[in-house]
Amino acid sequence: MRYMMLYKPGYDGGPPPTQEHMQQMGQLIGEMSQAGVLLATDGLLDSSKGVRVRVKDEKFTVTDGPFTETKELIAGFALIKVPSREEAIRWAKKFLSLMGEGESEIREMCDVPAFP
Question: Is omega for the bond preceding 66 within 30 degrees of 0, making it cis?
C-alpha cells in the first residue's frame, strides 16, 4: 500500500535547519531508502512563497502567501510504500521524533488507476 505522509509543523518558516539536523534527516532518509519504503520526499518553502487558488460558484480567488492559519500549513511530504497502516505510523513516529514537534497526516493512496 502507498501512503502520503504530510508534515505540518504548526508554524511557518522559522530558522533554517542546523548541519546536525540535516545529517540526522539524511540518515533517516537513507534508512527509509535502504528499507525499500521511500518512493519520494521533499520539504516545502514557507508560505510567503506560496499561493492558494480557490473556486466557488465558478469564481476563482487567488491569494498570495503568507497564510495566517499556520496549523494547516504543510512543510513537507514523504510518499512511502509499506504493507500496512501500522508500518506507515511507525515511520511517521520516527520522523516526528527527529523533528521534535508538529504532526503528520497519513493518507492511504488510491492504488486503482485513475484512467484504465
Answer: yes
Exposure b/e, 75-112, CB count within 10 A at least 16 = b: bbbbebebeeeebbeebbeebbeebeebebebeeeeee
The verdict on residue 113 lying in a domain is: no
Total number of domains constituting the chain: 1
The answer to whether residues 5 and 39 touch, using CB atoms and an 8 Å cutoff, is no
**Is 77 in contact with 6 (CB distance < 8 Å)?**
yes
The tens digit of pLDDT for each residue in 38-91 reads: 999 999 998 999 999 999 999 999 999 998 887 789 999 999 999 999 999 999
pTM of the entire predicted model: 0.86
Helix (H, G, I), strand (E, B) or coil at 110: coil
Q: Tell me, yes or no, whether 115 lies in a domain.
A: no
